[in-house]
C-alpha cells in the first residue's frame, strides 16, 4: 500500500514514518524548496515527545531541544502569578523540549529520507482527487502522484481539506500577532529561571523568554491588534518592528525591552489563527492530520504535540482497519474529542492576552487565583500525560 503525504512540516514526516513502521510506503510532497527557513521556537510537551518516541524519532531530534520543565507566569509589575509544570517527564526522565520550529521540521524530514522515504521539495499540491480504487495529487509543476491514500498534513490553509470539503471553515483570527526572535550570548540568560519559559502578561502585549544552554535567550511577543495586512508587512522594515516591540515592552517587568532591542527577529508579523472545528475530516481515500484539521492557537502550546500524536494514531488506525475509509473513520473516532478540547484551551488562553481579556484579567490577584485553582498541573494532566502507542507495530494495512 502507498500513501502520499502532502506537507513536510511536523505532522507530514512523522505520519510518513509512522505509516512506514506499520508497513505502508509513503512519499512526502513539500511545497517549499529545501534550505534553511525562518521561524520561531515552540515546545513539544511529554505527550508529543511520547509520539516521537513511538516512531523511534525522539533520539534523532533530542539534541536540538532545550529542556523546558515549567512555565513561570509574571504580572506586568513583577508579581509572580503562578508556576505551571509542563507535565510529567517521560519514563526515561525526558522533560518537555523546546525546538526552533523549522529545525525540528528539517530534522524530521532528514530522518524520513534516511529511512528511505521519498521527499519531494518544491512540490506544491494544487488539488487532490479520490476514486474507489485510488487517490491522486496534482502538483503545481504538472506532476501527478497516485497512491492508495492521500493524507493532508499541509497545515492550517490545507489544500487537501478543501478537496475533502469545499465548504470547510477557514482559520479564525484569534486577535494576536506573533513575533519571535533570539538574543545571542547575553548575560540576561543567567538571570532567567533555567529550563523554563518566563512569561509576562504585559500591559500592552504578552511576552515569553527561554534561556538556552548556549547562553542565548529565545523570546516572543504576542501583540493584541487587528491582523497585519500584506501592505503593512511590506511597508514595515524589520528594525521598525523591533522598535515597536521594544516600546510595547518598556515599563513592564522583565528583560524584554533589552532582549528585543538587542536581538534578531526570526518570526515577523505573523497573524495567529486557530481552527475550532472541521466538520469533515476525510472523504474516500483522502484524510487529514495536524493543523489541517485542528490548529489550536499557539497559546495552547500543543499544536505540534497534537500533530505528532495524530501521526501515530493515523498509522495505527490505517493498519488496524480493513479499508482506508475504515482507517480514517477510526482515526476520527479516536482523535476528535481530544483535539477539539485542546483547541478550546488555546482559545481561552489567547483571550487572556487580547485587549478585552487584558483589561478583564489584568488584575494580578485574579490571575494568581486562576493559576492556583483553575489552570494547574492537575487540571492539565489530561493534555500532558496522554501517551499514544503505535499499534499494531508492523501491522499489515490494507
Ligand atoms: C508562533 C507559533 C508558536 C507555536 N508554538 C507552539 C508550541 O509551543 N507548542 C506546540 O505544540 N505548537 C506550537 N505551535 C503550533 C505548531 O507550530 C503547529 O501546530 C504545528 O506546526 C502543526 O504541524 P503541521 O505539520 O500540521 O503543520 P505545519 O507545521 O504548518 O506544516 C505544514 C507543511 O505543509 C506545507 N504545505 C502547505 N501547503 C502545501 C501544499 N499545498 N503542498 C505541499 N505542501 C504544503 C507547508 O510548507 C508546511 O511545511 C505554534 C505555532 C505558531 C505559529
UniProtKB/TrEMBL annotation:
Entry's Gene Ontology molecular function annotations: FAD binding; FAD-dependent urate hydroxylase activity
A Pfam family this chain is assigned to: FAD_binding_3
InterPro entries named in the record: FAD-bd, FAD-dep_Monooxygenase_BioMet, FAD/NAD-bd_sf
UniProt entry keywords in alphabetical sequence: Monooxygenase, Oxidoreductase
Top-level lineage group: Bacteria
Entry keyword Oxidoreductase: yes
EC number(s) reported in the record: 1.14.13.113
Gene3D superfamilies: FAD/NAD(P)-binding domain
Residues in FAD-binding domain copies: 4-343
Claim: Oxidoreductase is one of the keywords in the record: yes
UniProt enzyme class: oxidoreductase
Name listed for the protein in its UniProt record: FAD-dependent urate hydroxylase
Originating organism: Gordonia insulae
GN (gene name): hpxO_1
Amino acid at each position: 500500500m502507498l500513501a502520499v503525504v502532502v506537507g513536510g512540516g511536523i505532522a507530514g514526516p512523522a505520519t510518513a514514518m509512522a505509516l512506514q513502521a506499520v508497513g505502508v510506503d509513503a512519499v512526502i510532497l513539500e511545497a517549499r524548496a529545501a534550505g534553511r527557513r525562518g521561524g520561531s521556537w515552540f515546545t513539544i510537551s511529554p505527550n508529543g515527545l511520547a509520539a516521537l518516541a513511538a516512531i523511534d524519532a525522539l533520539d534523532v531530534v533530542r539534541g536540538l531541544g532545550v529542556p523546558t520543565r515549567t512555565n513561570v507566569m509574571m504580572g506586568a509589575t513583577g508579581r509572580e502569578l503562578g508556576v505551571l509544570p509542563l507535565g510529567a517527564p517521560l519514563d526515561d526522565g525526558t522533560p518537555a523540549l523546546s525546538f526552533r520550529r523549522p529545525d525540528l521540521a528539517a530534522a524530521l524530514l532528514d530522518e524520513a529520507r534516511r529511512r528511505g522515504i521519498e521527499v519531494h521539495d518544491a512540490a506544491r499540491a494544487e488539488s487532490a482527487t479520490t476514486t474507489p480504487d485510488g487517490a491522486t495529487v496534482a502538483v503545481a509543476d504538472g506532476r501527478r502522484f497516485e497512491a492508495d491514500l492521500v493524507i493532508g498534513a499541509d497545515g492550517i490553509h490545507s489544500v487537501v481539506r478543501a478537496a475533502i470539503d469545499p465548504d470547510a471553515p477557514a482559520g479564525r483570527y484569534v486577535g494576536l500577532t506573533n513575533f519571535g526572535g533570539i538574543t545571542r550570548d547575553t548575560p540576561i540568560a543567567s538571570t532567567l529561571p533555567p529550563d523554563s519559559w518566563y512569561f509576562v502578561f504585559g500591559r500592552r502585549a504578552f511576552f515569553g523568554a527561554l534561556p538556552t544552554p548556549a547562553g542565548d535567550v529565545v523570546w516572543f511577543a504576542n501583540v493584541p491588534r487587528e491582523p497585519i495586512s500584506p501592505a503593512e508587512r511590506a511597508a514595515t522594515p524589520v528594525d521598525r518592528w523591533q522598535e515597536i516591540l521594544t516600546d510595547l515592552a518598556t515599563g513592564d517587568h522583565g528583560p524584554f525591552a533589552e532582549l528585543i532591542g538587542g536581538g534578531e527577529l526570526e518570526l515577523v508579523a505573523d497573524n495567529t489563527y486557530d481552527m475550532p472545528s472541521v466538520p469533515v475530516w476525510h472523504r474516500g481515500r483522502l484524510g487529514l492530520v495536524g493543523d489541517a484539521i485542528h490548529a489550536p492557537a499557539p497559546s495552547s502550546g500543543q499544536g505540534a504535540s497534537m500533530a505528532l500524536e495524530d501521526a501515530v494514531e493515523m498509522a495505527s488506525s490505517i493498519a488496524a482497519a480493513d479499508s482506508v475509509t475504515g482507517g480514517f473513520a477510526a482515526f476520527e473516532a479516536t482523535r476528535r474529542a481530544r483535539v477539539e478540547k485542546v483547541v478550546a484551551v488555546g482559545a481561552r488562553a489567547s483571550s487572556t492576552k487580547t485587549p478585552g481579556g487584558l483589561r478583564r484579567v489584568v488584575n494580578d490577584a485574579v490571575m494568581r487565583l486562576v493559576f492556583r485553582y483553575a489552570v494547574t498541573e492537575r487540571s492539565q494532566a489530561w493534555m500532558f500525560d496522554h501517551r499514544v502507542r503505535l499499534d499494531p507495530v508492523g501491522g499489515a494495512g490494507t
